[in-house]
């Protein structure tokens, strides 16, 4: 059963315009990697033991962009793929999902990134990446669509695009354009240790842009990694080590348990709903997409705890529905699916 303190207008949450509305177009621009995930057809086996794999479009920033669109919002994706069949397929998938793909670029010399994902019996994941280098690592500042970035109400990104040059410098330039144009900066570190040269490099790289973000979404495991703390549930650890002075909203996802939230004025947690998990790929991105979709149309959301809790529950349901399917983008729910579930659990 849903958290009883969250009730009322959940069904109409996605249409809420009662708060302060951005003077922009409610557009969320997502920057970073888009790739092909290869998902084993059976769970609980190693990559070597998997009898076959299904290909699924993925990449955290692209997942978020598609999620926002499927939930009725407006989104665009900026990144680079190979000028190959996989890259063209990914561009088409964005277009099919009503995501503006005009900021995508195609590399003639590097391939689209691939990731092979093993699933435990519980649907948890391990990754093996093929990107040496892949096209997403090679996006250059001269290839940025500055006009598209300037239109963003929210500019969202991860940390994978901070690992290698020239993409790192391009990422920083895009953040600067967005910040100067008045966009809200949204950051999901999305830790993928195998892609970094070392653990120290990962911590340093992730934290290098930490204090620039207005909104940060992080998992419990990432808290432990970044702070070295034994207990990621310790509010003092979170607030002293991770909540910087300019941060508007810090979200800590707890998987099937839900999410904790921290602002300058209040903190709390919101439960999720119970589902049978098939594949957790894309769940965090579905959560992020749900929150950003609501925030893009209600820019003061983080100042009103009741509305924020409603938005987080909306996002929790989006994530929960995602884990009931296989793959990232293919499993992202529609606005209708989320609203039907909200109606059921709050009836």
Automatic annotation (TrEMBL):
One of its GO terms (molecular function) is ATP binding. It catalyses: D-fructose + ATP = D-fructose 6-phosphate + ADP + H(+). One of its GO terms (biological process) is fructose metabolic process. PROSITE patterns: PFKB_KINASES_1, PFKB_KINASES_2. Residues 26-334 form the Carbohydrate kinase PfkB domain. CDD domains: bac_FRK. The keyword Ligase does not apply. Keywords: ATP-binding, Carbohydrate metabolism, Kinase, Nucleotide-binding, Transferase. Its EC number is 2.7.1.4. Pathway: Glycan biosynthesis; starch biosynthesis. It comes from the Eukaryota. GO terms for cellular component: cytosol. It is an enzyme of class 2 (transferase). May play an important role in maintaining the flux of carbon towards starch formation. Belongs to the carbohydrate kinase PfkB family. This is fructokinase. It comes from Solanum pinnatisectum (tansyleaf nightshade).
């Amino acid at each position: 059963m849903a958290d009883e303190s969250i009730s009322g207008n959940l069904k109409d949450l996605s249409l809420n315009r009662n708060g302060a509305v951005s003077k922009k177009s409610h557009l969320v621009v997502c920057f970073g990697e888009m790739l092909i995930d290869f998902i084993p057809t059976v769970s609980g086996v190693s990559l070597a033991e998997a009898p076959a794999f299904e290909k699924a479009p993925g990449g955290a920033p692209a997942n978020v962009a598609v999620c926002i669109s499927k939930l009725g919002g407006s989104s665009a994706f900026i990144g680079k793929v190979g000028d190959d069949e996989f890259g063209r397929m990914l561009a088409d998938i964005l277009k099919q999902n009503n995501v503006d793909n005009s900021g995508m670029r195609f590399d003639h010399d590097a391939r689209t990134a691939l990731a092979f994902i093993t699933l435990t019996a519980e649907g948890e994941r391990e990754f093996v990446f093929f990107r040496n280098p892949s096209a997403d690592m090679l996006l250059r500042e001269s290839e940025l669509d500055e006009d598209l970035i300037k239109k963003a109400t929210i500019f969202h990104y991860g940390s994978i695009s901070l690992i290698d040059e020239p993409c790192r410098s391009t990422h920083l330039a895009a953040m600067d354009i967005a910040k100067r144009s008045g966009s809200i900066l949204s950051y999901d570190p999305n830790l993928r240790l195998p892609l970094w040269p070392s653990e120290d490099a990962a911590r340093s790289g992730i934290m290098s842009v930490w204090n620039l973000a207005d909104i940060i979404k992080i998992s419990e495991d990432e808290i432990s990694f970044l702070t070295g703390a034994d207990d990621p549930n310790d509010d003092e650890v979170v607030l002293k080590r991770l909540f910087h002075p300019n941060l508007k909203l810090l979200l800590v996802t707890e998987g099937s348990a839900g999410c904790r939230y921290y602002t300058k004025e209040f903190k709390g947690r919101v439960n999720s709903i119970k589902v049978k998990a098939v594949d957790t790929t894309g769940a965090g991105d579905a959560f992020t997409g749900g929150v950003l979709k609501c925030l893009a149309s209600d820019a003061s959301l983080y100042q009103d705890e009741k509305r924020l809790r409603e938005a987080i529950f909306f996002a929790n349901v989006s994530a929960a529905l995602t884990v009931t399917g296989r793959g990232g983008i293919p499993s992202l729910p529609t606005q209708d699916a989320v609203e039907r579930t909200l109606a059921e659990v709050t009836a």
